[in-house]
């Protein structure tokens, strides 16, 4: 690269070339100077001054190299946007095109994580190392680290599409730490005795919703989005196609995955809960379950916990678990009863049963002493038939 690898070299009898990095691009520019030892030293000093200006954010390409073809590309107007400004603009544009729950997740990551840490950095100056060094300081799980990077990577992809930056510094790269020893999973289902105690502590709409949740495995967000038109009384099924979170502010949204849109078979306890609920909301032909205090659709998980769930746990004397445990309770009940894992997976809205086996494996009935006997019997029958046929051929 010339002059001992210092980024300065003679390229002709009347010019010297200097090489430096700017906005992730290796730049080479010529200075009209005879390449004497003194001038080469001056070129090194000039290069050092340029790199210092770049490091403090004061470098103006068009001023330093007004005749360079790169000057227009690196015009100051294109580099004045900070990470703060870009992410704020990006977030506002995203709100129209993504689900409310996804947007709320992005908003929290941008406002609480990314802008405080990286907001002052110029968009074009963001480097992977700066992101890695910052992430290394966070005392969060690998899942949270992944969520932060996913949000930033998506934003930088859009910046690349807008030609604000040449390359996404996070493309093809993910930062993570050595995984900590796995914690006990969150699966903590209610026993039959606990279920009865909680149901006895509830009445009316609250009891109906609790019983329906325990015997369908619906997520809370799916439960509150349910309308009477989703019930197929002849087939005894419920069509799950929408979810409503607090972030959606009262607006039901389609489920995030195709597997999430599903028909759930209604077992007898679930049908009984629906029939009991008809006297409360059926004639309005809208939401199935309402907040008994307001007679409006539940707004999400938060109000359910505060006004119905926590008081019921205390009254029943049952150890507190979050409402999502009704879903885990349903899965564990079905598997303990010997229902096929693939059927349970479809009921819950999963594409396959690998997650079911991983999370709920201990509730699957273990093999008994007779396991494998059916297969062995078929083998013995086939073997006997082949042996018989061979003997008949030998005697013919």
TrEMBL record:
Chain intervals for the UniProt region annotation (Disordered): 371-396
Pfam family, one: Arm-DNA-bind_2
Domain Tyr recombinase: 185-375
Domain Core-binding (CB): start-end pairs: 81-160
Biased composition regions of type Basic and acidic residues, renumbered to the chain: 377-396
UniProt entry keywords in alphabetical sequence: DNA integration, DNA recombination, DNA-binding
PROSITE patterns: CB, TYR_RECOMBINASE
Keyword check for DNA-binding: yes
Ranges in a coiled coil: none
Listed InterPro entries: CB (IPR044068), DNA_brk_join_enz (IPR011010), Integrase-like_cat_sf (IPR013762), Integrase_catalytic (IPR002104), Integrase_recombinase_N (IPR010998), Min27-like_integrase_DNA_bind (IPR022000), Phage_Integrase (IPR050808)
Family according to the record: Belongs to the 'phage' integrase family.
Protein name per UniProt: Site-specific integrase
Species name: Pseudomonas paracarnis
